[in-house]
Amino acid sequence: MQPIGDNSMRPAARSHRIAQFLYGLTAGLLSLFVTLPFLFLAPAPQDDEYGFTFLAIAAIVALLVSWMATRAAGRRRRILFACLCAAALPCIANPLAVRVLGHFLDLDVLIPDVLAGLFGLDGERAYDAALYELWCELWLLFALPFFAVIWLVLRRR
Asked: Are 112 and 133 spatial neighbours (Cβ–Cβ below 8 Å)?
């Protein structure tokens, strides 16, 4: 361990540590970008208790993914970032698809209303559950082709 303020660390080792930190930071932010919509759009009671729990889950996921990004090297790191990007792209495309599809299609047909019936939700909570189901369905619709392409590309190598 180098003392603070000691500049005797080799430049290559210093740049390696900076690169590791940036890999971990980027992976953690991407994992937060992917997990937060799944947690905060879920039709749960809007108490502070659930909000804190969801934040804690998202933070744990982000820390684990950051740790994996700093430990992985080469091909494993590329696979991790490809999967994170493939999971993040539908999060960007999803709101756009809901906005565009809402003008052309009757979105009630796409929503199976499983969560509202399963948890006995009614009123605004049932509406939130239906929107959450639509969000999850569209996420899967966009994510599956991305993951299939990644799988095919990695399989060819």
From this structure: yes
Assign 6 a pLDDT band (cuts: 50, 70, 90). low
**How many Å apart are CA 143 and CA 82, to the nearest integer?**
12
pTM here is 0.72
pLDDT per residue over 24-48, tens digit each? 999 999 999 988 888 888 777 665 5
What is the Cα–Cα distance from 135 to 99, expressed in whole angstroms?
12
Residue with tokens 């799988």: 151
